[in-house]
C-alpha cells in the first residue's frame, strides 16, 4: 500500500509538468493515418504517396511528436484503450528512422510496449514488467536533467517503468500504433488533454 501511494504521489507530481503534444506528419510512416488535429494516429489500409524525406520512418510504422525537448520536465498522456499492441516513449532527434529501427537507449530510443507476451521495456535484453490493472491510458514523464523517462498507468495511478540514463541533444515523443491485422488492433493511439485539477477526464 505504501509503494502504491508513493507511485500515485509521483504521478500527480509529474502531471504538474503537462505539455500539449501533437503529431508531426513529416515523420509519419506512409501507412499511418493522422487525424486533422494531429492527436490521433492509426495504421491505415493503404500506403500513402508521401514525400520520401529524411525525417520520415520508412519501415517502422512510427510517428514523432512535433515538440522538441532539450531540458526541463515534460508530461503527456496517451489513450491506448483496448489495443493489443502499441509502443510509446521518447527518442533522440538524431536516432535512425530508416530501415529496421532498434528500440534501445543505446540507439536513442526509450520505449515501452505491449505485445502478445505482455508489457516490456525496450532494453537489450528487454525487461518485462508486471501490470496488475491493464492500462487504458499511459502517462509519459520526461525529466531531462535527472536522466529519467517514467511511464505511469493512468487507469490505476500506478508506476509502470522508469529508464535512467544521461541525455544529450534533442528528444521527441514517440508513438507506434502497430499494425492492424484484419481489423484487430485497428484503434488509434490518442494524445489526451491532461486536466489541471486532480481528477481524471475522458478523452474526446
Task: Give keywords.
1 helix, 7-stranded antiparallel sheet, mainly beta, 6-stranded antiparallel sheet
Outline the fold blueprint.
Layout: H1 2-15, E1 32-34, E2 40-43, E3 63-64, E4 73-79, E5 86-92, E6 109-115, E7 118-121, E8 127-128, E9 137-143, E10 148-153, E11 158-164, E12 171-176, E13 189-192
Antiparallel strand pairs: 1-2, 2-13, 3-12, 4-9, 4-13, 5-6, 5-12, 6-7, 7-8, 9-10, 10-11
Q: Helicity, in percent?
A: under 10%
Give the structural class. mainly beta
Strand order of the largest sheet: 1-2-13-4-9-10-11
Helix count, per DSSP? Answer: 1
Q: Could you spell the SSE succession in H and E letters?
A: HEEEEEEEEEEEEE
Distance, first to last CA:
32 Å
In percent, how much strand structure appears in the residues? 25-35%
Largest sheet: 7 strands, antiparallel
What's the mean pLDDT score?
Answer: 93
Rg, please?
Answer: 16 Å
Q: Say how many strands there are.
A: 13
Low-confidence regions: 198-204
The coarse overall form would be globular
Structure report:
With 204 residues, the chain is mainly β. The chain is built from 1 helix and 13 strands, in the order H-E-E-E-E-E-E-E-E-E-E-E-E-E. It has one helix spanning 2-15; strands at 32-34, 40-43, 63-64, 73-79, 86-92, 109-115, 118-121, 127-128, 137-143, 148-153, 158-164, 171-176, 189-192. Residues 198-204 have low confidence and may be disordered.
